[in-house]
Structure prediction request, 363 residues.
Amino acid sequence: MTITTLDTPSAKPLLDWYDRHHRELPWRVSPGMAARGVKADPYRVWLSEVMLQQTTVQAVKPYFERFLQRWPEVTDLAAAENDAVMAAWAGLGYYARARNLKKCAEAVANEHGGVFPDTEEGLKSLPGIGDYTAAAVAAIAFNRQAAVMDGNVERVISRLYAIATPLPAAKPAMKLKVALLTPVDRPGDFAQAMMDLGATICTPKRPACSLCPFRGACEALKLSDPELFPVKAAKKEKPVRYGAAFIAVTGDGEILLRRRIDSGLLGGMTEVPTTAWTARIDGETSARAAPFEAAWQASGTVIHVFTHFELRLSIWRAAIAAKVSTNDGWWEPVTNLEAQALPTIMKKAIAAAIPLAFKTSKG
Prediction:
């Protein structure tokens, strides 16, 4: 492993920068708020960190605010119906996070009296909390000296130390560097400062190095172009999978929906009938696989990119006079689709067959 070494810089310039330039976020206790005695709420910190995994701040904000309105405390979320939580999460993607969110809330409520553990190890004992989330909640909510490393922090660290080892192999070395940098005093602010620095100054393209509090210590800036870091291993080409989705609509404006099994991809979410595609195998793409006989009409193809594969669904639409009896699913008014736990791929499929479906939905 090739790493350019330098003495660990002081965290003070970064914390001074954070005091002046921190982002105002709905889940954050800012330095000014902390000075007035406001304490971080572990529930809000945990909820935001789970939502922010592989999702942007701007996408998360409205979801976070809606969750807090419906379930202001972790005990409220623990008592919520699973379907309600999945419906509220719909559109954020990576739906295993929502299932684990509910399980974690139940564990905190039922096994810890509604109080989150205040150490990394205690937090990692909860369902769905791994190394990153445990470190983030421990640092931000409980001011523990934990090494927090998300994608933004990886970028800052890789440039600060000119780490030439490609990701993901470089992650253990990066985390050691973060641990050395993290101060005993204000570790939560330090973690958030590193995230803000990566999001606003040390950006993937055209970083604003002249404004960076670490500019005097940054090895990438001294030696080469910071945009060359982090070094990433060559990406494997994603496989393409095929399947079909069937949108049946009655004369009364009801659509056939069903619920996916709890485990696996999109587990527990609502869907229109589809063929048996997975990340590894193709499903049938023709109308022969429809859930019942009808005058199915081709309505184009929709494409959706998952983490490990690309899915191409052939869309089939049938206008039927009345509801068909089925043991697998239910008929839902098109005007109520926004209230359903429909993942993005299913919304795309429905919109391909019924272009105004989500414009007329009540929400």
User: Anything to note?
Assistant: The first helix runs from residue 12 to 21.
